[in-house]
Amino acid sequence: MKYHLIDNKLFIKNRKNFTAKMKPSSLAVFNSNDIYPISADSTMPFEQHRDIFYLSGVDQEESILVLFPDCPKEKHREILFLKETNEHIAVWEGEKLTKEAAYKTSGIKTVYWLKDMEKVMFELMTQCDTVYINTNEHYRASVETETREDRFTKWLKDEYPAHAVAKSNPILQRLRSVKDKIELDLIQQACDITEKGFRRVLGFVKPGVWEYEIEAEFMHE
Q1: Residues 88, 93, 95, 100, CA torsion sign
Q2: Predicted local confidence at residue 69, as pLDDT
Q3: Is the CA virtual torsion 162, 166, 167, 171 positive or negative?
Q4: CB 107 within 8 A of CB 8
Q5: Would residue 119 count as lying in a domain?
Q6: At CA 47, angle to CA 218 and CA 91, rounded to 5?
Q7: Does residue 3 lie in a domain region?
Q8: What pLDDT was estimated at residue 98?
Q9: Are strands 64-67 and 26-31 parallel, antiparallel or unpaired?
């Protein structure tokens, strides 16, 4: 579904609020969700991890956000790692974020391709003492699938066992429970669209109308 670009001031503010709660000399890492297979070469529609979206606005697979507010290099205090794109990928897989588009979306100036992640992470890890990992700690969570976040956390702990580990989730739970005005306006816009859809459907439903026809009317609105 088409949607308008969200003002990146929201994501800039969200990152500022999050990093203000971090321990000194620490960095935090957030990963995109996987694209999950169905069978053969079929996959489920991609659904972004809510936390990386909350902090960056990036709605794309194979993306990583790193926040390191105390980094000696200013350009490495906020970093995005993205899947490299080109004209061939745009044709066969669909348009992906360029470095320029990623900056416009997130407000993050430093964007690397994913192939550079391990090299850059090595440099960052020599400059910090604590790593914030993002785990699912919802009290109703019952996840059997190993997520991209889980795999990254295992890799990080294996590669850098001497670093202390902290949890991002408690910070995010507190921050996300209070909505910014931009968020409230977006929620209201979504409510308005939904209301119009239901009102359109109410005038369309009658005997002999099929579900897919109702869906088409709703989506059109």
Answers
A1: negative
A2: 98
A3: negative
A4: yes
A5: yes
A6: 90
A7: no
A8: 93
A9: antiparallel
- What tokens does 220 get? 């059109």
> What pLDDT score does 20 carry?
97
Do both 55 and 153 map to the same domain?
A: yes
Asked whether residue 126 falls in the same domain as residue 69, the answer is: yes
pLDDT at 51: 95
Q: Give me the CATH number covering residue 95.
A: 3.40.350.10
Per-10-residue mean pLDDT for the chain, 221 residues long? 83 98 97 86 87 96 97 97 87 87 97 97 97 85 84 96 96 94 94 92 91 90 77
Are 131 and 153 in a shared domain?
yes
Query: Which residues span the domain enclosing 188?
Result: 181-220
∠ at Cα 99 (97, 104), nearest 5°?
A: 80
Whether 2 maps to a domain, the answer reads no
